[in-house]
């Protein structure tokens, strides 16, 4: 691993701290390095401001002169009522070099941020650990390119593929460790959705019950054409309506009907499969997801992670 890749890894770790809390801005990380030592670091703060670069420069102060800034997204080039352009801040700081993971797809910046830095005599480099940066900013990128939130579908399955008992009850298929991981995932999303059947059967709270991040619960969304949502919930009538939701990261937690509807619509970007070592028997399973033959099922998903959580197994898949 090169020095650029290593320091970008530190910036990526910082970027992960803001995931699910910065919409409509991306969660960006920045590390400023001088003579092999970190002199400034920052990540996008809740609500989108300050930006990562502004936070890192405020920490570095005069030490930024002659240093290298590692940032997970091209520094913004447009001024805002909420703050100056990060490309300008970096140029004024005396930074000697800027390394970005990916370019910003926002047309106000796309390439212009790096060009402005180069025009100021700053050495620039891009596409360092780009795939990881795109994963960290999946919500922001999906909203910009597809005008909808990035969708993660969570499924807790028995060994025989059941998502619930025959009467719809699903508490609990997995054990405590897997459920804790689900709460971590909730804390990293803007929105969480269930169908009317899950709401009626389980009355889920959909909050975050992990020590220290209880305040990061996503906004709750009901998928229903007729049932009124509880107070404080949002409602969508069909999967396509998620484009209207105020957020960039959507987690779908239940149930089988809602999961099938989003899969059939081709609106699932990421799968979290929690598999428990139990057999249910006459269980509810996923419904029709629109496949006409088995050949259509292959080649759609790529395994990106597998881990053991207590007695359960988690598999994470992304679009192939």
UniProtKB/TrEMBL annotation:
<dbReference type="InterPro" id="IPR050765">
    <property type="entry name" value="Riboflavin_Biosynth_HTPR"/>
</dbReference>
<feature type="active site" description="Proton donor">
    <location>
        <position position="53"/>
    </location>
</feature>
<feature type="binding site">
    <location>
        <position position="253"/>
    </location>
    <ligand>
        <name>substrate</name>
    </ligand>
</feature>
<keyword id="KW-0378">Hydrolase</keyword>
<keyword id="KW-0511">Multifunctional enzyme</keyword>
<feature type="binding site">
    <location>
        <position position="202"/>
    </location>
    <ligand>
        <name>NADP(+)</name>
    </ligand>
</feature>
<feature type="binding site">
    <location>
        <begin position="255"/>
        <end position="261"/>
    </location>
    <ligand>
        <name>NADP(+)</name>
    </ligand>
</feature>
<comment type="similarity">
    <text>In the C-terminal section; belongs to the HTP reductase family.</text>
</comment>
<dbReference type="InterPro" id="IPR002125">
    <property type="entry name" value="CMP_dCMP_dom"/>
</dbReference>
<dbReference type="GO" id="GO:0046872">
    <property type="term" value="F:metal ion binding"/>
</dbReference>
<dbReference type="GO" id="GO:0008703">
    <property type="term" value="F:5-amino-6-(5-phosphoribosylamino)uracil reductase activity"/>
</dbReference>
<dbReference type="InterPro" id="IPR016193">
    <property type="entry name" value="Cytidine_deaminase-like"/>
</dbReference>
<dbReference type="InterPro" id="IPR004794">
    <property type="entry name" value="Eubact_RibD"/>
</dbReference>
<dbReference type="GO" id="GO:0008835">
    <property type="term" value="F:diaminohydroxyphosphoribosylaminopyrimidine deaminase activity"/>
</dbReference>
<dbReference type="InterPro" id="IPR024072">
    <property type="entry name" value="DHFR-like_dom_sf"/>
</dbReference>
<comment type="pathway">
    <text>Cofactor biosynthesis; riboflavin biosynthesis; 5-amino-6-(D-ribitylamino)uracil from GTP: step 3/4.</text>
</comment>
<feature type="binding site">
    <location>
        <position position="206"/>
    </location>
    <ligand>
        <name>substrate</name>
    </ligand>
</feature>
<comment type="pathway">
    <text>Cofactor biosynthesis; riboflavin biosynthesis; 5-amino-6-(D-ribitylamino)uracil from GTP: step 2/4.</text>
</comment>
<dbReference type="Pfam" id="PF00383">
    <property type="entry name" value="dCMP_cyt_deam_1"/>
</dbReference>
<feature type="binding site">
    <location>
        <position position="209"/>
    </location>
    <ligand>
        <name>substrate</name>
    </ligand>
</feature>
<feature type="binding site">
    <location>
        <position position="186"/>
    </location>
    <ligand>
        <name>substrate</name>
    </ligand>
</feature>
<keyword id="KW-0686">Riboflavin biosynthesis</keyword>
<feature type="binding site">
    <location>
        <position position="156"/>
    </location>
    <ligand>
        <name>NADP(+)</name>
    </ligand>
</feature>
<feature type="binding site">
    <location>
        <position position="172"/>
    </location>
    <ligand>
        <name>NADP(+)</name>
    </ligand>
</feature>
<keyword id="KW-0479">Metal-binding</keyword>
<feature type="binding site">
    <location>
        <position position="76"/>
    </location>
    <ligand>
        <name>Zn(2+)</name>
    </ligand>
</feature>
<protein>
    <recommendedName>
        <fullName>Riboflavin biosynthesis protein RibD</fullName>
        <ecNumber>1.1.1.193</ecNumber>
        <ecNumber>3.5.4.26</ecNumber>
    </recommendedName>
</protein>
<comment type="similarity">
    <text>In the N-terminal section; belongs to the cytidine and deoxycytidylate deaminase family.</text>
</comment>
<feature type="binding site">
    <location>
        <position position="170"/>
    </location>
    <ligand>
        <name>substrate</name>
    </ligand>
</feature>
<feature type="domain" description="CMP/dCMP-type deaminase">
    <location>
        <begin position="2"/>
        <end position="125"/>
    </location>
</feature>
<keyword id="KW-0560">Oxidoreductase</keyword>
<feature type="binding site">
    <location>
        <position position="198"/>
    </location>
    <ligand>
        <name>NADP(+)</name>
    </ligand>
</feature>
<dbReference type="InterPro" id="IPR002734">
    <property type="entry name" value="RibDG_C"/>
</dbReference>
<keyword id="KW-0521">NADP</keyword>
<comment type="function">
    <text>Converts 2,5-diamino-6-(ribosylamino)-4(3h)-pyrimidinone 5'-phosphate into 5-amino-6-(ribosylamino)-2,4(1h,3h)-pyrimidinedione 5'-phosphate.</text>
</comment>
<feature type="binding site">
    <location>
        <position position="51"/>
    </location>
    <ligand>
        <name>Zn(2+)</name>
    </ligand>
</feature>
<keyword id="KW-0862">Zinc</keyword>
<feature type="binding site">
    <location>
        <position position="86"/>
    </location>
    <ligand>
        <name>Zn(2+)</name>
    </ligand>
</feature>
<dbReference type="Pfam" id="PF01872">
    <property type="entry name" value="RibD_C"/>
</dbReference>
<dbReference type="GO" id="GO:0009231">
    <property type="term" value="P:riboflavin biosynthetic process"/>
</dbReference>
């Amino acid at each position: 691993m090169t020095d650029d890749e290593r320091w970008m890894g530190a910036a990526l770790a910082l970027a992960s701290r803001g995931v699910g809390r910065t919409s409509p801005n991306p969660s960006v990380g920045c590390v400023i390095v001088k003579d092999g030592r970190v002199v400034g670091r920052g990540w996008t703060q809740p609500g989108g401001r300050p930006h990562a670069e502004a936070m890192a420069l405020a920490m570095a102060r005069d030490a930024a002169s002659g240093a290298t800034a590692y940032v997970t997204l091209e520094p913004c080039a447009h001024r805002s009522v909420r703050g100056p352009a990060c490309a300008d801040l970096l140029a004024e700081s005396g930074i000697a070099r800027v390394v970005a993971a990916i370019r910003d797809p926002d047309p106000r910046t796309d390439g212009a941020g790096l060009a402005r830095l180069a025009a100021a005599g700053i050495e620039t480099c891009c596409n360092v650990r780009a795939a990881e940066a795109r994963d960290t900013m999946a919500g922001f990128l999906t909203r910009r390119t597809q005008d909808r939130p990035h969708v993660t579908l969570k499924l807790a399955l028995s060994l025989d593929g059941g998502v619930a008992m025959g009467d719809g009850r699903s508490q609990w298929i997995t054990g405590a460790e897997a459920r804790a991981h689900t709460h971590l995932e909730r804390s990293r999303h803007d929105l969480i959705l269930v169908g009317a059947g899950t709401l009626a059967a389980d009355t889920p709270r959909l909050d975050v019950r992990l020590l220290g991040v209880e305040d990061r619960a996503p906004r709750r969304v009901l998928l229903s054409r007729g049932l009124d949502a509880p107070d404080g919930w949002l409602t969508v009538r069909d999967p396509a309506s998620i484009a209207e939701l105020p957020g960039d990261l959507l987690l779908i937690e239940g149930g089988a009907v809602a999961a099938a509807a989003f899969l059939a619509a081709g609106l699932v970007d990421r799968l979290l499969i929690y598999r428990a070592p139990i057999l249910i028997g006459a269980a509810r399973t996923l419904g029709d997801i629109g496949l006409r033959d088995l050949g259509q099922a292959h080649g759609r998903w790529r395994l990106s992670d597998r881990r053991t959580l207590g007695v359960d197994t988690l598999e994470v898949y992304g679009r192939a």
